[in-house]
Request: fold
Amino acid sequence: MGTFFLKKNYFITFVLAMHNKTRCIVLRTVKYGDDKLIIDFLTREEGRVSAVWKISTSRTAKVRRQYFQAMSILDVELEQSPCKQMTRIKEAHIAVPYHTMNADLAKMSIAFFIAEFLHYVTRDTRSDAILYDFVEQSMRWLDASDKGIANFHLMFMMRVSMFLGFQPDLSSYRDGALFDLREGFFTSVTPFHSDYLNVDDARRMLTLMRMSVSNLHLFPLSRSERNRIIDFILLYYRLHIPQFGEMKTLEVLREF
Reply:
């Protein structure tokens, strides 16, 4: 911060804008006024960040609107000024281009669902490079994979619970156990509330936590099973994140 002297006791204070370069993933884009977009990012260095970009249709523009599709991986330069309420996007570039995502309807549906899911669960997330790296690496795998993606979103959601601090306690599992969704552990005693999984679904919860991108193809599930599983995973998240909203992209994903 510095001061610029004018006359006698009159002066103005100026504050230089800060420019931060970061790797980020696009979670949500919304129209702001007639000529601006507000983009919510998950960044590696700062966690969740929202920034504004003035829409440009110029062919020579450094930033293009198509960069801000859900789950795009970008390198951005953000301008943060104390004189302005919102962070501004100065530059943006595709950091990791997708090769199959935009041409595969199933992958696109998964990407939109994951973007909305992360938008809800990372609202209060500060810098977490490990979480960011997991998300980016997972999306790279999804783009590159030609098989075994049907259960990807299920595995992904349960893995994210590990970074948020309420992953299921697998050490409590015993054959025939129930799963208490509120407490996050397996139990042989029926809870005094209705938020628990029966024996079959509890076993499915155990299976979910054993999934990874390297073994997804080893867990065949029918569409009805996946839809049942996604419902209890979302309930699990709503019990642990009260502000978790309704998933608008869910119905499209149910078709795959």
About this structure: The two ends are 55 Å apart (CA to CA). The first strand starts at residue 2 and ends at 7. The CA atoms of residues 22 and 76 lie 6 Å apart.
